[in-house]
Design goal:
single chain, 43 residues, mainly alpha, flat
Length: 43
């Protein structure tokens, strides 16, 4: 993962998303709530 990436695109989205979870867990420990929805619906 590029630690200097600042913009999301189709090419960087997955890598940035997967990199967020361990950072959030390391920063907030047991206070973190990671929600992984199985289905997302909209209008």
């Amino acid at each position: 993962m590029d630690p200097d990436a600042t913009e999301w695109s189709d090419e960087t989205y997955g890598e940035l998303k997967s990199g967020c979870k361990p950072i959030v867990q390391a920063t907030f420990a047991k206070r973190a709530l990671i929600i992984l929805p199985g289905v997302v619906v909209g209008p």
